[in-house]
Design goal:
The protein is of the alpha/beta class. It has 17 helices and 14 strands. The strands form 3 sheets. It has a 7-stranded mixed beta sheet, with helices on both faces. Strands 9, 10, 11, 13 and 14 form a 5-stranded antiparallel beta sheet that branches. α3 crosses α5 and α16 packs across α17.
Length: 476
């Protein structure tokens, strides 16, 4: 295990979300400084409260002896007790035993019913795999798709570095296609086509097309037309669509509601409804924000049965996904219904948190757009703002002298001065000679004004310190 002897792909993989900035933040904590970790979409770490009903059920499921307690009905609503008994019945011998390698059959049936209700088309539970968060499913599918160094996967730029790191780890090639920042980070089909043609000229094989909707780190919501364009292109080129849809609850505008790729594909009819699609979802985002429970799933659409069997074989190596995450998925896709005792309180909790997130999305966007040398598209969905930094020439020169990328330099200065931990845009990819950063919109609403003011004060001082007589041409 000498570092010179381990797998080169392991050493080549990079994951900026917990990279240099995160590690420096950990050092500052040890020095006694308070750090605001807006580098990762981790709602409960910044004060979000877990939804009451799912946690009530999970507590009963993990401690089933409580169901026999004489005062259980005083502590828990009747529907939580009934749901816990239902879950335990689905898992047969409780959550301390292995399940099917794809996850509990009853939960997969619930996921299939959720998908059918959402999209209007039946779903087959046999093609649904429960996973330890969506990331595990993404890695499994990329690992299965990439055969050798000649295979390529199309990934949006900016991208969530799960994709670049995993593709590197499995020995493939990431082909980045640029989103259009000037058009609210919309899809740019010409960029996709250009990358595919370039890959073909190099003798490489493009295997898959990844998209993230709503976007991470860019926060855009995709239009029906963009989804249709991607389905058509994937069908024509014989690509597998990989739909990262973990933020489907996180919508903060009314112009573009969430549309699943599966629904769009099915609505288009033959031959496009036969396009191969893998879609991913998670309990880590949305309103639940249960990042630590590691519950996720993916659905295989139009994937051949023999391939499904091969994936089943691979997940069997890990025996099964964690059972508490499976229960969390059950509660995500099958929440209290109207008429249930917990329905009103559950509905109010969800609606209040979504309304707060919408206000915070606008607060952060407006704050950035009011700051000197910063512009920012509206966070339409997901949990992030991705502002563009119009850095002065002197700042770029100072970064170069420090051996840092300019946006890394800015983010490190921000961290040291304010304790705000962000991720530089260079960790996600960006158009050359432009600079960005990603921050979450997750600080609680009562703290958001202070968060924005700290950012503003730092930015004013930074821009004053490195002011040019004229703006740098590369950031004009």
């Amino acid at each position: 295990m000498h570092p010179d002897l381990i797998n080169e792909h392991v050493k080549s993989a990079q994951y900026a979300v917990r990279g240099e900035l995160y590690l420096r933040g950990q050092e500052l904590i040890k020095e006694g400084k308070e750090i605001i970790f807006t580098n990762v979409g981790n709602p409960q770490a910044l004060g979000a409260k877990p939804l009451t009903f799912p946690r009530q059920v999970i507590s009963l499921v993990t401690a089933p002896f409580l169901l026999e307690h004489p005062k259980v009905s005083e502590l828990y609503p009747a529907d939580a007790i009934a749901r816990a008994k239902q879950v335990l019945d689905q898992f047969k011998v409780g959550v301390g035993a292995y399940t099917d390698s794809r996850g509990c059959g009853g939960v997969r049936e619930e996921v299939a019913q959720f998908i059918e209700a959402r999209d209007g088309y039946p779903s087959n539970a046999e093609n649904i795999f429960l996973t330890d968060g969506a990331s595990v499913g993404v890695r499994l599918c990329l690992n299965s798709l990439i055969r050798n160094e000649n295979d390529c996967v199309l990934v949006p730029i900016p991208q969530y570095p799960l994709y670049s790191a995993s593709i590197t780890l499995y020995g493939g090639n990431m082909m980045g296609y640029y989103l259009d920042e000037e058009a609210d980070w919309s899809m740019n089909m010409q960029s996709i086509k250009t990358q595919v043609e370039a890959a073909k000229e190099q003798g490489k094989v493009v295997r898959g097309l990844v998209f993230i909707n709503p976007g991470n780190p860019t926060g855009q919501c995709m239009s029906k037309e963009s989804l249709e364009d991607m389905v058509k292109f994937a069908k024509e080129e014989g690509l597998v669509l990989m739909a990262d849809e973990v933020y489907q609850e996180n919508i903060y505008q009314d112009k573009r509601p969430f549309l699943s790729c599966r629904k769009v594909l099915m609505d288009m009819g033959p031959p496009y409804s036969d396009t191969e699609l893998i879609s991913f979802h998670s309990v880590s985002k949305g309103v639940a924000g249960e990042c630590g429970l590691r519950g996720g799933y993916f659905e295989l659409v139009n994937i051949m049965e023999d391939t499904v069997a091969e994936l089943y074989k691979i997940v069997s190596i890990n025996l099964c996904p964690n059972t508490i995450g499976q229960v969390a998925i059950s509660l995500l896709v099958n929440p209290p219904k109207e008429g249930d005792e917990s329905y009103e309180s559950f509905r109010k909790e969800k609606e209040a948190e979504l309304a707060s997130l919408r206000r915070r999305a606008h607060m952060v966007t407006d704050a950035f757009n009011s700051m000197k040398n910063i512009t920012c598209n509206l966070t339409e969905g997901a949990m992030y703002a991705f502002p563009k930094l119009h850095l002065p020439r002197k700042a770029i020169e100072a970064a170069k002298a420090a051996g840092k990328a300019p946006d890394v330099f800015y983010c490190l200065k921000l961290l040291e001065a304010t304790g705000i931990s962000t991720v530089p845009g260079s960790g996600f990819g960006q158009v050359p000679d432009t600079w960005h950063l990603r921050t979450t919109i997750l600080p609680r609403e009562e703290k958001m004004a202070d968060f924005c003011e700290k950012f503003r004060e730092f930015n004013d001082e930074f821009m004053k310190t490195y002011a040019d007589e004229e703006p740098a041409a590369v950031n004009a």
